[in-house]
Design goal:
The protein is mainly α. It has 9 helices and 4 strands; from the N terminus they run H-E-E-H-E-E-H-H-H-H-H-H-H.
């Protein structure tokens, strides 16, 4: 009997919608939830505005599932309709660019690091992170996958070192 009451309260609050106005401003450091590697890497910056609704969450879910073309279309439509702020859209597009980058597209200086996993040159960061997440070590060992992930994710910082 109590579960019916809880369910009805949940449905009532779920159907009410947003009560905080047109947009939400993130205060502090908030991490997006999710099981995908892409979703776990996104962090909202202080003062970043997210519009009320599920558009940003839906876009991050598409990115996390590797559906980059659909995510890009939603980003463009969201910005055009005023449902998504330009800084948020830029962060999403940057994440898509990182996830679609192939290891072989790295500058030659980074490809000359010791123990560079050359067998992964044709694989994207998304594919590498999926191999890590699923424990798939057929093409490369875990340290090689972690190195490939680090080389792509931290490319600007590593280029300054070398």
């Amino acid at each position: 009997m109590a579960w019916k009451w809880l369910l009805s309260v949940f449905l009532l609050f779920g159907s009410v919608g947003c009560s905080h106005g047109d947009a939400v401003t993130v205060r502090g450091d908030t991490r997006w939830g999710g099981t995908s590697p892409a979703a776990s890497h996104h962090q909202a910056q202080e003062g970043e505005r997210f519009e009320c609704g599920t558009l940003p969450a839906r876009i991050w879910a598409l990115i996390g599932q590797g559906q980059f073309a659909e995510a890009e279309v939603l980003i463009a439509e969201g910005v055009a309709a005023g449902l998504l702020s330009k800084p948020a859209a830029n962060r999403m597009l940057e994440e898509i660019a990182k996830l679609t980058m192939r290891l072989g597209q790295l500058p030659a200086r980074l490809q000359r690091v010791p123990d560079f996993p050359s067998q992964l040159k044709e694989h994207t960061l998304y594919e590498i992170e999926q191999m890590l997440a699923h424990g798939n070590f057929i093409l490369a060992t875990k340290p090689q996958l972690l190195m490939a992930q680090k080389l792509i994710r931290q490319q600007p910082r590593l280029m300054q070192k070398f």
